[in-house]
Specification:
Length: 141
C-alpha cells in the first residue's frame, strides 16, 4: 500500500524529516584577482566581490545538508539576505560558515557568516528548498 505525501508536500517532493537543525559546514577560500568586484563586474575596487562572498555562504549552506539528502534530492536557493560589513583583500583567507537553524516543510533556513584574518566580514540568512532533482530539472524543458 502506498501512502500519499502530507498535504504540504507534492508527490515527488523529498522528505525533509532526515534533516535536523544544527547541521553546519565551513568553506575556506583564498581570495584571488578573479574574486574581485572588478573581475566580476559588481564594483570598481579590487576587493572580494559581494556576489563571490555570497556564493561562498551558499556553498556552505549546501555542504551543511548535502550528506543527509536522499539520492535524487537536492536543495535550491530561494532567498538570501546578507550584510557585507568589511572588505576582503586579495590574498586573504575567507572562512564562510552556515548553520541550519530551522526546517519548515521543504524550506531550510540557514544563518551564515564569513570571516577573514581580521574578523567578521559578512553575516546573513540563506533559505533553500528541498527538491526532487529530476522534477526540478524538467521545469527547464
Amino acid at each position: 500500500m502506498t501512502t500519499a505525501p502530507p498535504p504540504d508536500r507534492p508527490r515527488n517532493a523529498p522528505d525533509p524529516s532526515e534533516l535536523a537543525a544544527g547541521a553546519t559546514a565551513l568553506v575556506t577560500h583564498i581570495v584571488t584577482e578573479a574574486d574581485t568586484a572588478i573581475a566580476i563586474g559588481s564594483g570598481s575596487v579590487a576587493v572580494l566581490a559581494t556576489p563571490r562572498l555570497l556564493a561562498l555562504c551558499e556553498q556552505a549552506s549546501v555542504e551543511a545538508v548535502q550528506d543527509s539528502l536522499a539520492d535524487g534530492t537536492t536543495t535550491v536557493g530561494v532567498r538570501v539576505m546578507m550584510d557585507h560589513v568589511m572588505p576582503g583583500a586579495v590574498g586573504s583567507q575567507v572562512r564562510a560558515e552556515a548553520t541550519l537553524e530551522k526546517v519548515k516543510g521543504r524550506k531550510l533556513f540557514f544563518t551564515t557568516a564569513a570571516y577573514d584574518e581580521r574578523g567578521l566580514i559578512a553575516a546573513g540568512k540563506v533559505v533553500r528548498v528541498l527538491v526532487d532533482t529530476g522534477t526540478f530539472l524538467a521545469k527547464c524543458d
